[in-house]
Each structure stands twice: as structure tokens, then as C-alpha cells.
Model the fold of this input.
Amino acid sequence: MAKDLPVIGLLASVGVLLAAALTAIGMHYAVGWSWATAGAFGVLISATDPVSVIATFKEAGVHGRLRLLVEAESLLNDGTAAVAFVVVLGLSTGSDSRWLGTAGHFLLAFGGGILAGLMVGFALRLFAARTDDQVVEITFTALAAYGSFFLAEHFHVSGVLASLTAGIMTGSYRGPQPPWAAGRARLESFWEYIAFVVNSLIFLLIGARVAQQHFAGVWLAVLVAIALVTLGRALAIYPLCALFARTALNVSMRHQHVLFWGGLRGALALGLPPDLPQHEDIVTVCFAVVAFSIFAQGLTMQPLLRRLGELKGRTTIG
Done:
């Protein structure tokens, strides 16, 4: 991840903002949404949540750089989208009316979230080194995950980035005697199970919300949104990856195609505040796009991998 951080960071930051801008502009002019509504929708829907793609990768035994790029980008762009969403809400309410103040708020929320995660991650290492009880070690990681989030939220910075940073510190410790070395396998099994439960709940909630929506009255907005989100994803992947074409970090065209088509949408759509302008329209269109990405993109990912030559039975790819 450290080696590919320039690629991942660019896709998860500039890529999200480019996709959000294209989607917002298109929804404003093509559908007639206000700038506040279009901007909130654009930011919210531009972050990827490729849970089903990662599940396909695991089932097929896909590892290596492709899986790293897909999974790491989806983790980091959640943080970018969450911070940008707060900024857009601030602009729509007039609390952040100046661009300089908006940029400062974005950087503060971004950097503050990382700092909170570093502090909690360091504390986790310090306390975990004092025990060899595996149950206590697992408890410490749970406290770090939620503690970093609530610490960041208390100071109005990004809780998503705080938890992510704390997790990276936990997983990347390479000292002579990692404090959780004895229970590493059990620790990873615990968090793998937690991730499975949470991801399952997310899709159950998405399915329940999609079933409650009435798409007939907004079918034109839905079609426009699907087209814009797809184009926005292309804008976020191909031009930015082209910047690394002549470097050691070159992303092959086959991997770019998987990144593009594997950009499913999901969890952030569940967190819309009820007082958002045109809330019901955003919710309905948002879940229509989510449903399209899950069924159209998620279910065709394995055939795409096979057609690109990246999937042959249960082989491992790099």
C-alpha cells in the first residue's frame, strides 16, 4: 500500500472530487436540481463501496495489486466524500460561504481525522504491549476503532479517516515483537467476522430502503444520474491513471477497466440527513443508482474479470 499510495491517494481524493463535480453539474443543468441538492448528491454518490467486488475477489482467490487498488481506494475515498459532504452542507446553509474558509475546513477535517487516528493507534500499541491476553488485545482494537471515530467526531473532524488511520497503524506494526503477535490470527478472524456482519447489514438496509422507494416519478432523473455517475467514474480513473503511464506505478489498462466497473455505490447513501433540500428526491435517485451498481456492475464483475484474462478458475493474480 505504501508503494501504491500516490495512485491510491490521487484516485481517492482528486478522483472523487472530479466525479462529484461532473455529477453535480450534470444534475443541475439536466434535471434542474439546485446547486446545493446537486452538490450533495454528487459528493454522496461518488464514493465507491465495492463490497460485493471484494467478495468476488475472495471467492475467486484474487490477490495482489488489483485487489489492493480496489479495496484501498474504496476505504480512502469514503473519507474524502464524508469530509466533502460536510463542506457542501456548510456551503448550502451559508456557514462556509467563502472558498478559502471551505478549503480550510476541508483540510482541517481531513488532517484532524488522520491525527486523531494516529493518537489512538499509538495508544493502542502502548497498552497492548503490556498484555498477552488475546481477549484483551481484541478488546483494545475494538476500543481503538470506535474510540478514534468518536474522538474525531467530538472535535468535528473526520471520524472515517480517524478509524481508518488507527486500523492501518494496528495492521502495519513491524516491530521486533508486535504486541498482538501471539493472537494475530484470532484478531484477524474476529475483524473478518465483524466486517462480514456489518457488510451484510449494509446490504440488508440498502435492500429495505430500495424496496420503499417509488422510482416512477423520477425515472428521468434516475437515468441521467446513472449515466453521469458512470461517466464520472471514468473521469476519475482513466485520466488520473494515465498520469502514471510512464512510471513504475503504471496501472495496466485491464486493471483500470476493473477499477472503473468495480466502482459500486453503497453505505454512504444510508446517512442522508432528513433536513437536506429535496431530501426525498436525493434518496430515491441515490438508491436507484446503488441498486444499478449492485446488480448491473456487481453481478457482471466475474464475467468481466474472466473476459479480461484476470480470472481463470480460482487462480491468483498480481
Confidence is low (pLDDT under 50) at residues 313-318.
